[in-house]
Write a structure and sequence with these properties.
Blueprint lengths: L1 H19 L10 E4 L2 H4 L8 H9 L3 E3 L12 H8 L1 H4 L7 E4 L3 H8 L5 H7 L8 H11 L3 E5 L15 H16 L4 E4 L22 H17 L3
Parallel strand pairs: 1-2, 1-3, 3-4, 4-5
């Protein structure tokens, strides 16, 4: 009877082990990417900024960015689907979180004109208050180091977002203030990446990055992680 009971238990124990054990060769992502189209562009061809980081570091990156996402987004259903960048974040074994955001809030939310209130809601001038610092603080409390990635600038040749340069510079300055207060937060600017008149870093719409742009930006981000010890 004892032997029969033992034989009956073995398949159940094996099933439990299979359910709780990761597949052989599987590696759990320890790097999370959240944000808008700056991170989502070229993801289908595995050439997005998070994809470049993954390839450079030989570490899996979970990319949850969504085209059109904003930092301030109040619709609950689509917000939960990722159009609210803060809702893209879920707790996990994240060693690093790479994030961007705010561009759609300024361009679509206030047309990069009279955006003081919108900017203040996202991040205060000293970098201590707003949606961005609140999200970063949440991720830091969970133990992740955070890299906030700035946006490319227009090369000054027919871009629909050319007039957003001042707002982009102000957002960068505020995020830089935030990062300076915490050794576990980095700001990686991209304002200097595109040479004047050079269209090759942008896609045909002159808004989103080309694969050359994502490669250059992704390598900058990967360098920060590598220098910090991965």
């Amino acid at each position: 009877m004892f032997c029969l009971k033992g034989l009956w238990m073995k398949p159940i124990l094996l099933m439990i082990l299979l359910l709780v054990s990761p597949p052989v060769g599987a590696e759990q992502a320890r790097i999370l990417a959240i944000g808008d189209s700056f991170f989502a562009t070229h993801s289908r061809s595995d050439r997005s900024i998070p994809d470049v980081v993954e390839h450079e570091l030989s570490q899996r990156v979970s990319n949850r960015s969504v085209m059109g996402a904003r930092m301030i987004y109040n619709l609950p259903l689509t917000g939960a689907m990722g159009f609210n960048i803060s809702r893209q974040y879920r707790g996990g074994p994240w060693k690093w979180v790479i994030m961007n955001g705010g561009g759609n809030d300024l361009w679509l939310g206030c047309n990069c004109s009279r955006c003081d209130r919108k900017m203040q809601k996202m991040i205060s001038k000293d970098g201590t208050r707003g949606e961005i610092p609140a999200l970063v603080s949440k991720m830091r409390r969970a133990g992740a180091r955070v890299i906030y990635v700035g946006y490319l600038r227009s090369p000054g040749r027919g871009s629909p977002i050319e007039h957003c340069r001042d707002e982009g510079n102000e957002l960068d300055a505020r995020v830089s203030q935030m990062a300076a207060r915490d050794a576990g937060v980095w700001f990686v600017p991209m304002a200097d990446l595109v040479p004047a008149g050079d269209r090759s870093f942008h896609a045909a719409d002159m808004i989103h990055p080309s694969t050359k742009g994502t490669a250059a930006a992704g390598k900058r981000v990967a360098r920060i992680i590598a220098e910090a010890g991965g």
